[in-house]
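Comment thread on ticket #2218

A.B. wrote:
> Attaching the input chain for the structure job we discussed in standup.
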Amino acid sequence: MAGRLRMSGKGIGGIVPKRIVLSLCVALLAALPFGPVLAEDAGIIKSYGISRFGELQYPPDFKHYGYVNPDAPKGGTVHKAMTGAFDSLNPFIIKGQWSSAAYHIYDSLLADSFDEVNTRYGLLAETVEYPRDLSWVIFNMRPEARWHDGTPITSDDVIFTFNTLVKKGKPLYRYYYANVEKVEALGPHRVKFTFNETGNRELPTIIGQMNILPKHYWESRDFEATTLEPPLGSGPYRISRVDPGRSVTLERVPDYWGKDLPVNVGRNNFDKIVLDYYRDDSIAFEAFKAGKVDYRAETVRNWATAYDFPAFKSGKVKKLELPKNDDASLYAFAYNTRREKFSDPRVREALAYAWDFTWVNQNLYHGMYVQSRSYFRDSEMAATGLPSKAELALLEPYRNQVPARVFTEEYNPPSTDGSGNIRSNLRTAFRLLKEAGWEIRNNKLTNVKTGEVFSIQFFYVQSEDEKLYAAFARGLNSLGIQTSLRQVDASEAIRRIDSRDFDIYATTRYFAQSHSPGNEQREYFGSAAATIEGSNNITGIHDPVVDGLIEKIIFAKTKDDMLTATRAMDRVLQWSFYTIPLFHSAVHRIGIWDRFGRPERMAKYALGFNYVYSFDDTWWIDPEKDKAIRAAR
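C.D. wrote:
> Ran it. Output below, let me know if you need it in another format.
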């Protein structure tokens, strides 16, 4: 009998991979947009899955993913600690502070494969159809798919979802689906998306990723309002209990319609998942030590200094270091370039010389971090060295519109020796600031023309982050910049970021990159998103060169074309100094109560535990381990 399992975090064999060659398409396979097919008729391809580039790893008759245990036992209750609070169960709108539990009750048309990049297989949709020019895509839905109230899921739900998200949802959806011209039902379980341009190879896959909402539930409710009423879903879990601001309980649906599909076998193994909200991560860690929380994505400070409590010493709690390949996100200080003082790139470059990564890493983070330098860190998309011939071909038309160093230098952030003495860097900063029209007057950095004194207010949510901002503030103070620090709650932080009421903010949220960048880049860095409240263009980038390179990424015909365009854009962003890259970890550091079983092989691009947006659970409660832990207590 499985017991109770608790976990904490801030917010991640079987089949042998093989090349599939169907006799139907041997001669055409290399030219197919999404790899292997089930059939092709008059140039219309029908497939059981789609991948932006290359072939599908799993064959049409696959039984389960290769990174799951198909015989994993079901059962137990999982507690995950969240920090902050929540006041909404609608994660699709700007309003409110939503609980991530609300993402996990819906099915999408296609399911992610965490062994492959931008590759998905049938979930609500059994098959997809598309022409070679990718001017449209049709999803053939499974008639057996049901909402939790027993109502069939139909094309009308898909159309309602798309129209509602684009018209009433977060700004992301408008940019994500910008090339969709029309969506129409061709039958109760057959829906077609028509595009206004051809060749957008990613668009069919991201439409397939869309969480489908129940039309009959939402059409009688205000979609744009926050709500604590558990919404109707269709996925493996439903929201069974809500304690406002304190906890949300997800309960596995025993008669879930899709539990035996290949994409679900060996997953969704816990009976209940409870998200418990704590005001601060330090409190959540105390709950973990006490056994109220049994899983943590650990901070480096705790990793290095805090694992000296009895449960760890006795072996009941363990520390795991696991490979980290699942994202290419940048953690950075982001400038709000809408504010005049940050509009000059020389100012933005200068302030980076006041950031002493080496000292901060050694003295605050026990030397466990790696300095970041790219918007696509630790990935093949990152720009390194000088531009390749292919990159130069893309960048040459923009030579007079981008910094000259894009062509002549590899970008690297300012370096220090860790001594805390950064006088050489400060001299460089003063030179740049003087060129930009700032000088020291009465020990304060002052604008020569306007007399404005340079000041920066930092705000933060977690008390642990205060030392990060304080370290940066010390360097800025040496430049004569007036700084102040203020702790706020999570809801105020989100409100201020969305309304652009900030100077500089440390974040990964707005630079969350996958290994297959595409349509979302319009909202991250595109000019049109710069003026939209709540968009992910947090820095206010408004650059026609970046806009042009984004389109090259989206409409890339091959993976090499996509990589070339992404690296070229990375260079332009780096040398425009919209952010100060901070640091990242090369591994996942996990603290657990030793009650888990997990597959012999990890997915390449997932940890095996759920993240905020993606429910990729493949772990389970091991009955024997759980019994031993309970007996020891």
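A.B. wrote:
> Thanks. Noting for the ticket: The longest strand covers residues 180-187.
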